[in-house]
Amino acid sequence: MAEPGSVAWPPAPIRTERLVLREPEARDRPAVIELFASPEVGTYIGGPRPRDELERAVPEVPGRRPGHFVVDLDGAMIGTVTLDRRDTERPGHVLSGAGQAELGYMFLPRAWGHGYAGEACAAALDWFAGAFPDESVVLRTQIANDRSMRLAAKLRFSEVERFEEYGAEQWLGVWSPVPPSG
Ligand SMILES: CC(C)(COP(=O)(O)OP(=O)(O)OC[C@H]1O[C@@H](n2cnc3c(N)ncnc32)[C@H](O)[C@@H]1OP(=O)(O)O)[C@@H](O)C(=O)NCCC(=O)NCCS
């Protein structure tokens, strides 16, 4: 995500065939807590967080910041898609050049297996490419995270490298708006 202020945020809600990507609202708080407390969701991203801790820590309007989209299906939050400024201090920063964002996604388990994450991420990437045409997007995921690896391939991320972090094998991929020729 570029520095706040360099592009209008939030954009107008982004509508896809089945979903809306929008800013978080107060009514999303229970779903945000459910997301971070879920053992299935946490399997490859550091584990679930205790529900009582989340009840204390999650603000009334959760996660309102540039690059953070709530994914809404029929008026209810089913997940989040994030595009954040990449932390170059972490492993896997082999790409050079300024302007790099990192894609993240988390969906409630009941929303898995319907193509919603793919649909939402594709829309967020389209928005990003329009707003920041000179920036690439990277994605880091555990290789053991089959669903996430399949999603990365479907979104046309291509492998840059594999590396160890948090005691697990990680995959770093890069996305750019124009598909490679040939
Ligand atoms: C990673 C994650 C978002 C993937 O969710 P997902 O629902 O599997 O991903 P997609 O949206 O790509 O859906 C693909 C599945 O929907 C199915 N599907 C059903 N209807 C579909 C449709 N209309 N269009 C596309 N796919 C459809 C596909 O067949 C596929 O199922 P399969 O994997 O069983 O073959 C989800 O597992 C998750 O939130 N995990 C926890 C958080 C996490 O680990 N994040 C990664 C951090 S980098």
Automatic annotation (TrEMBL):
Superkingdom to which the source organism belongs: Bacteria
Residue ranges occupied by any N-acetyltransferase domain in the UniProt entry: 19-181
Pfam families, A to Z: Acetyltransf_3
Single annotated GO MF: acyltransferase activity, transferring groups other than amino-acyl groups
InterPro entries from the UniProt entry: Acyl_CoA_acyltransferase (IPR016181), GNAT_dom (IPR000182), N-acetyltransferase (IPR051531)
PANTHER family assigned: GNAT FAMILY, PUTATIVE (AFU_ORTHOLOGUE AFUA_3G00765)-RELATED-RELATED, N-ACETYLTRANSFERASE DOMAIN-CONTAINING PROTEIN
Protein name: N-acetyltransferase
Biological source species: Polymorphospora rubra
Taxonomic lineage from the root: Bacteria, Bacillati, Actinomycetota, Actinomycetes, Micromonosporales
